[in-house]
Amino acid sequence: MKIVNPVVWFEIYVEDLKRAVKFYETVFQVHLSELPSPDDADIQMMAFPSDMESKNAASGTLVKMEGFKAGNNSTIVYFASEDCKVEEARIKDAGGNVFKSKQSLGEYGFMVLANDTEGNMIGIHSIQ
């Protein structure tokens, strides 16, 4: 089996789940839904829209879990966009802040770096 994109899942850890859900729903204009957690786990998850059957498309959740602090991690999740300037314009009003405004990546498109309401750095990528 040839794997084009090995990333299949991501988790963004948060301190205030309600605040984080509002941020991501506002910036990306999507609806997150509750994902049941295992019975013995003290964990809350809100899932991004996904289709587990799609190949090479990562799914993921916002996660609130005791003992796992949000922010200051060393992994950045990039969200796809038609034009990352659109989502960039929503970040401040959603409670986050823009770390790097839309910048060119040459032939690889454009990106924006931002901090969500929980201190996590995220990226937004577009071709235009």
Description:
The protein has 128 residues and is an alpha/beta fold. It has helices at 17-28, 84-91; strands at residues 9-13, 33-35, 43-47, 59-65, 77-80, 97-104, 110-115, 121-126. The strands form 2 sheets. Strands 1-4-3-2 form a 4-stranded mixed sheet, covered by helices on one side. The protein has a 4-stranded mixed sheet with strand order 5-8-7-6, covered by helices on one side. Helix 1 (17-28) runs antiparallel to helix 2 (84-91). The termini are far apart.
**SS-based structural class?**
alpha/beta
Q: pLDDT under 50 segments (min length 5)?
A: none
N-to-C series of helices and strands: EHEEEEHEEE
What is the residue-mean pLDDT, rounded to a whole number? Answer: 89
By DSSP (H or I, 4+ residues per run), the number of helices equals 2
Characterize the biggest β-sheet.
4 strands, mixed
